[in-house]
Design goal:
Pfam families: Arm-DNA-bind_3. The chain has 198 residues and is an alpha+beta fold. Helix content is 43%, strand content 15%. The longest helix has 18 residues.
Length: 198
Protein backbone atom coordinates (compact mmCIF):
# COMPACT_ATOMS: atom_id res chain seq x y z
CA UNK A 1 0.00 0.00 0.00
CA UNK A 2 1.35 3.42 -0.94
CA UNK A 3 -0.04 6.54 0.65
CA UNK A 4 0.08 9.89 -1.10
CA UNK A 5 2.21 11.16 1.77
CA UNK A 6 4.26 8.84 3.87
CA UNK A 7 6.45 5.75 3.61
CA UNK A 8 6.05 3.11 0.98
CA UNK A 9 4.06 0.13 2.23
CA UNK A 10 4.30 -3.47 0.97
CA UNK A 11 2.20 -4.59 -1.97
CA UNK A 12 -0.26 -7.43 -1.61
CA UNK A 13 -2.06 -9.90 -3.82
CA UNK A 14 -5.46 -8.38 -4.47
CA UNK A 15 -8.53 -10.60 -4.33
CA UNK A 16 -12.19 -9.78 -4.90
CA UNK A 17 -12.74 -10.07 -1.16
CA UNK A 18 -9.95 -7.77 0.01
CA UNK A 19 -10.67 -5.23 -2.75
CA UNK A 20 -14.26 -4.97 -1.54
CA UNK A 21 -13.14 -4.66 2.07
CA UNK A 22 -10.32 -2.15 1.49
CA UNK A 23 -10.64 1.16 3.34
CA UNK A 24 -8.85 4.49 3.10
CA UNK A 25 -9.32 5.50 6.75
CA UNK A 26 -9.56 9.15 5.77
CA UNK A 27 -6.37 9.27 3.69
CA UNK A 28 -5.95 8.62 -0.01
CA UNK A 29 -4.05 5.38 -0.54
CA UNK A 30 -2.96 3.05 -3.32
CA UNK A 31 -2.85 -0.70 -2.89
CA UNK A 32 -0.53 -2.29 -5.44
CA UNK A 33 -1.39 -5.72 -6.78
CA UNK A 34 1.58 -8.06 -6.44
CA UNK A 35 0.03 -10.37 -9.04
CA UNK A 36 -0.22 -7.82 -11.86
CA UNK A 37 2.61 -5.48 -12.77
CA UNK A 38 1.63 -1.84 -12.46
CA UNK A 39 -1.93 -2.37 -11.27
CA UNK A 40 -3.07 -0.51 -8.17
CA UNK A 41 -6.34 0.26 -6.43
CA UNK A 42 -6.55 3.92 -5.48
CA UNK A 43 -8.94 4.76 -2.64
CA UNK A 44 -9.93 8.38 -2.04
CA UNK A 45 -10.38 9.97 1.35
CA UNK A 46 -14.12 9.37 1.00
CA UNK A 47 -13.68 5.73 0.05
CA UNK A 48 -14.15 5.92 -3.75
CA UNK A 49 -12.13 3.20 -5.44
CA UNK A 50 -10.41 3.61 -8.79
CA UNK A 51 -8.16 1.28 -10.76
CA UNK A 52 -4.90 2.78 -12.00
CA UNK A 53 -1.78 1.49 -13.71
CA UNK A 54 1.46 2.98 -12.40
CA UNK A 55 4.36 2.94 -14.84
CA UNK A 56 7.50 4.83 -15.80
CA UNK A 57 8.04 6.36 -19.22
CA UNK A 58 11.08 8.44 -20.11
CA UNK A 59 12.06 8.37 -16.44
CA UNK A 60 8.74 9.90 -15.39
CA UNK A 61 6.27 8.16 -13.13
CA UNK A 62 2.75 8.14 -14.56
CA UNK A 63 -0.70 6.84 -13.62
CA UNK A 64 -3.13 5.61 -16.23
CA UNK A 65 -6.74 5.46 -15.02
CA UNK A 66 -8.65 2.31 -15.95
CA UNK A 67 -11.96 3.09 -14.27
CA UNK A 68 -13.83 2.79 -11.02
CA UNK A 69 -14.55 -0.16 -8.78
CA UNK A 70 -17.03 -1.89 -8.47
CA UNK A 71 -18.18 -0.97 -11.98
CA UNK A 72 -14.92 -2.54 -13.18
CA UNK A 73 -14.00 -5.71 -11.30
CA UNK A 74 -10.56 -7.04 -10.43
CA UNK A 75 -10.35 -9.53 -13.30
CA UNK A 76 -11.16 -6.85 -15.88
CA UNK A 77 -8.72 -4.40 -14.32
CA UNK A 78 -5.97 -7.02 -14.46
CA UNK A 79 -6.57 -7.71 -18.16
CA UNK A 80 -6.53 -4.03 -19.00
CA UNK A 81 -3.41 -3.44 -16.89
CA UNK A 82 -1.59 -6.11 -18.88
CA UNK A 83 -2.55 -4.31 -22.09
CA UNK A 84 -1.27 -1.00 -20.74
CA UNK A 85 2.05 -2.47 -19.62
CA UNK A 86 2.45 -4.24 -22.95
CA UNK A 87 2.31 -0.85 -24.65
CA UNK A 88 4.90 0.53 -22.26
CA UNK A 89 7.19 -2.42 -23.03
CA UNK A 90 6.82 -1.66 -26.75
CA UNK A 91 7.84 1.96 -26.24
CA UNK A 92 4.33 3.43 -26.39
CA UNK A 93 3.18 5.86 -23.71
CA UNK A 94 -0.46 4.88 -23.00
CA UNK A 95 -1.37 8.31 -21.64
CA UNK A 96 0.04 10.13 -24.66
CA UNK A 97 -1.68 7.69 -27.01
CA UNK A 98 -5.00 8.26 -25.26
CA UNK A 99 -4.59 12.04 -25.46
CA UNK A 100 -4.07 11.97 -29.23
CA UNK A 101 -7.07 9.92 -30.25
CA UNK A 102 -10.79 10.41 -30.08
CA UNK A 103 -12.23 9.19 -26.76
CA UNK A 104 -14.51 6.20 -26.63
CA UNK A 105 -17.87 6.16 -24.88
CA UNK A 106 -16.44 4.29 -21.90
CA UNK A 107 -13.66 6.88 -21.57
CA UNK A 108 -16.25 9.66 -21.67
CA UNK A 109 -18.11 7.85 -18.91
CA UNK A 110 -14.95 7.58 -16.82
CA UNK A 111 -14.47 11.35 -17.10
CA UNK A 112 -18.12 11.86 -16.11
CA UNK A 113 -17.61 9.58 -13.11
CA UNK A 114 -14.48 11.40 -11.98
CA UNK A 115 -15.93 14.89 -12.48
CA UNK A 116 -19.52 14.49 -11.31
CA UNK A 117 -20.47 11.09 -9.93
CA UNK A 118 -17.70 11.03 -7.34
CA UNK A 119 -19.54 13.86 -5.55
CA UNK A 120 -22.91 12.07 -5.43
CA UNK A 121 -24.30 9.58 -2.96
CA UNK A 122 -26.02 7.94 -5.92
CA UNK A 123 -22.82 7.94 -8.01
CA UNK A 124 -22.20 4.21 -7.77
CA UNK A 125 -25.78 3.46 -8.82
CA UNK A 126 -25.53 5.78 -11.83
CA UNK A 127 -22.28 4.08 -12.85
CA UNK A 128 -23.91 0.68 -12.46
CA UNK A 129 -26.86 1.63 -14.66
CA UNK A 130 -24.72 3.15 -17.40
CA UNK A 131 -22.19 0.34 -17.43
CA UNK A 132 -24.88 -2.33 -17.46
CA UNK A 133 -27.15 -0.73 -20.06
CA UNK A 134 -24.77 1.19 -22.30
CA UNK A 135 -21.17 0.03 -22.12
CA UNK A 136 -21.74 -3.53 -23.44
CA UNK A 137 -23.24 -2.04 -26.61
CA UNK A 138 -21.40 1.24 -27.13
CA UNK A 139 -18.43 1.31 -24.77
CA UNK A 140 -15.67 0.62 -27.31
CA UNK A 141 -17.04 2.98 -29.95
CA UNK A 142 -15.46 6.35 -30.60
CA UNK A 143 -17.89 9.18 -29.91
CA UNK A 144 -18.24 9.97 -33.62
CA UNK A 145 -19.32 6.38 -34.30
CA UNK A 146 -22.34 6.51 -32.01
CA UNK A 147 -25.66 7.16 -33.75
CA UNK A 148 -28.37 9.41 -32.36
CA UNK A 149 -30.81 6.52 -32.44
CA UNK A 150 -28.53 4.45 -30.16
CA UNK A 151 -28.70 7.03 -27.39
CA UNK A 152 -32.39 7.87 -27.83
CA UNK A 153 -33.25 4.16 -27.57
CA UNK A 154 -31.40 3.91 -24.25
CA UNK A 155 -33.13 6.98 -22.86
CA UNK A 156 -36.50 5.53 -23.84
CA UNK A 157 -35.66 2.15 -22.30
CA UNK A 158 -34.65 3.75 -18.99
CA UNK A 159 -37.83 5.82 -18.96
CA UNK A 160 -39.96 2.73 -19.59
CA UNK A 161 -38.41 0.73 -16.75
CA UNK A 162 -40.53 2.44 -14.12
CA UNK A 163 -37.78 2.59 -11.49
CA UNK A 164 -38.75 3.23 -7.89
CA UNK A 165 -38.90 6.69 -6.38
CA UNK A 166 -35.65 6.03 -4.54
CA UNK A 167 -33.88 5.53 -7.86
CA UNK A 168 -35.17 8.74 -9.43
CA UNK A 169 -32.04 10.75 -8.72
CA UNK A 170 -29.81 8.02 -10.11
CA UNK A 171 -32.01 7.84 -13.20
CA UNK A 172 -31.85 11.62 -13.63
CA UNK A 173 -28.05 11.63 -13.57
CA UNK A 174 -27.99 8.68 -15.94
CA UNK A 175 -30.20 10.64 -18.30
CA UNK A 176 -27.93 13.68 -17.82
CA UNK A 177 -24.92 11.76 -19.09
CA UNK A 178 -26.78 10.28 -22.05
CA UNK A 179 -28.28 13.64 -23.00
CA UNK A 180 -24.87 15.27 -22.74
CA UNK A 181 -23.38 12.55 -24.87
CA UNK A 182 -26.13 13.05 -27.41
CA UNK A 183 -25.50 16.79 -27.63
CA UNK A 184 -21.80 16.16 -28.24
CA UNK A 185 -22.09 13.56 -30.98
CA UNK A 186 -25.43 14.04 -32.70
CA UNK A 187 -27.18 16.80 -34.56
CA UNK A 188 -30.85 17.58 -34.18
CA UNK A 189 -33.20 19.21 -31.67
CA UNK A 190 -32.75 18.73 -27.91
CA UNK A 191 -34.42 15.73 -26.36
CA UNK A 192 -37.78 16.15 -24.72
CA UNK A 193 -38.58 14.46 -21.47
CA UNK A 194 -37.98 14.79 -17.72
CA UNK A 195 -35.41 17.38 -16.77
CA UNK A 196 -32.06 16.03 -15.60
CA UNK A 197 -30.91 16.64 -12.07
CA UNK A 198 -28.80 19.73 -11.50
Amino acid sequence: MVTEKGPRMPTKRLTPKNVEAAKSHGKRVEISDSSTRGLALRISEKGRKTWVVVYRFNDKKKRFTLGRYPAKDLATARREALDVMDKVDRGVDPMAEKAHREPTVVEALEQFEARYLVTLKSGDEVSRILRKKMIPHLGDKALSEVQRGDVVAMLDALQDQGLSTGANRALAWTRKFLTGLLSEICSGPPLRGPQAAS
